[in-house]
């Protein structure tokens, strides 16, 4: 089990990839961007990016309006 930070909250996870964590938390709906340890990660790479102890993940949802 790894301890990671997602959007400022510390979580324990057994997931192996960033994509699985984002999916489980329901953050992959609609338009979103993911930053890992200060680096913007393309969505196509999220399922290959392995979870590492202490990793910082920020997920931002795009919101439309006018």
State the gist of this model.
Helices cover 11% and strands 36% of the residues.
Largest sheet: 5 strands, mixed
Order of strands in the sheet with most strands? 2-1-5-3-4
Whole-angstrom Rg: 12 Å
Q: List low-pLDDT spans.
A: none
**What does the overall shape look like?**
globular
Order of helices and strands: EEHEEE
* The top level CATH class name: Alpha Beta
What structural class do the secondary elements suggest? Answer: mainly beta
Q: How many separate helices?
A: 1
| Mean of all residue-level pLDDT scores | 94
Strand percentage lies at: 35-45%
Instruction: Tell me the number of strands.
Output: 5
CATH topology: Ubiquitin-like (UB roll)
Distance between the termini: 43 Å
From the 3D coordinates, which CATH architecture would you assign?
Roll
Percent helix, as a range, is 10-25%
CATH superfamily: Beta-grasp domain
